[in-house]
Structure formats: C-alpha cells, structure tokens
Design goal:
single chain; mainly alpha; 14 helices
Amino acid sequence: MTIFEAVILGIIQGLTEFLPVSSSGHFVLGEYFLGIKESDDVTFVVLLHFGTFLSVVIYFRERIFEILNAIKLGLSGNIIQVAKENYKVKEAIFLLTASVPAAVIGLAFEDFFEEAFSNLLGVSIALMVTGTILYLSEKATPGTKRLNSTNTFLIGCAQAAAIIPGISRSGSTICTGLFLGIKKEMAAEFSFLLSLPVILGATILKVGGMIGANYTNHELIAFTIGTIASFISGYFAIVLVMDTIKKKKFSYFSYYCWAVGLFGIVYFGFFLP
C-alpha cells in the first residue's frame, strides 16, 4: 500500500464515519476502485478507527469528562438512586445500554455481515436506503424531548442495523432520534458519543490480529499518515454535521447517497461481469 492510498482511505474513513453516508459502504467501494484490499490488514483498519475515535474524544472532550465523572459518581453509591438525582449519570447509562444491540447483533451474525462486505451491489442498494432515511428525517416534527431509556434503546437498535455496509451509522442513529422527537443537537451529540463504545469494542476485538505482525518502515509510515488523515477528516466531519443539523440541512446528504447508490447499482448490476 502506498502513502497516497493510505491517505485516501484515511480521508474516506474519517469523513464517512461521521457524515451520514456510511463509512463501511464507502470503504468497500474505495477499496474496489483503488484496486486494493486493505480491509484484510487488521492493523490498518484498527488504526483508521483509532483516528476517528480520537476525533470524537477531542471534539466532545468536555462532555466526555462530564460523563466519566458521572460514571464515577454513580459507582460511588447506589447507582439507581444517584441516576434519579443526576441526569448526567442517566446519560452515561443510556450510552452503555444503547451500545448493547450492536454488540449482540454484531457477534451473533458476524459471518453474515462479513459476507455483506463483498456484495457491492447490496452496498449500493443500502446507500439508496440511507439516502431515503435522511430525506424523510426533514419531515420529522421538530423535537423537544430529552433522552430516556426507551428512545436511546431504539437509537441503539438503529445503530445495530447500520452494521450492514451502506447503512450509515450516524445517519440512522441521528434520524431515529429526530423521528422520536429528540432535540436535534442532542440527537446528533448522542450519536457521536455512541460511536465511542462501538469503535473501541471493534478495535479491541481486532487487536489480537496485530500481534506478531511484521511491517516495513514504509508500511508503518503509511499507517501513521493514514491514521492522521482519518483523525483530521473525522474531526472536520463532526463539525460539518453539527453545523448542518442546526441549519436543518441534514437531508442534503440524501442526494449524495442516492447518487452514489444509483451509480453503484448501474455499474455493479449491469456493467460488471
């Protein structure tokens, strides 16, 4: 893998991890059209996800610090009683419980989802579905609700469905929040914070594949630069999404998903042997 390819894949991973256009779908398509197969390289995949993990941590550092303090407070006494008195403790619990559906579904159907990554036509169709979800989100009535155990669990279920390549994780979780009447900024923030347990969990599961691997200096440089590209583009994507959703222009991403999805359907459905 060249440094150029590492940068391109890093940018794709960073932007599409948080823009509502499906990082997995774009990563698969990016690999195909670049003519490389780096998703088989566990180290590179882990490092790219680590880059996007850091972008969330840096952007939401104050909120994350509040959540960690809330967890510490909850563990210091009767967590149920503390949660009743402190809403931030509740938010920490919501993040943990909303992460459960994706973990369960991902582990239970791991082989199915791995096969889905090789179905480029299926990825393209899923992108069309993502575009439709994004478009319909603008029809949702402006919400005023706060997070609660029910709506955060449903958001977690939407995140689980987004394991399918082509279905956007950020798009499905944010849109589900909007459909459920949650305040738009709160829905977006919860979606980004919800990515942390998922990215961290997926990274831990793949760390074993990194042990004992031997890489050249050139490969290590490429991995490092790709990770930096993933971090920078990921941070930019978070800023863009937060600004877009405040201006009620979230559905603009639907046209992009439709365009890419339609191209993929035509190309992989009719022209690819």
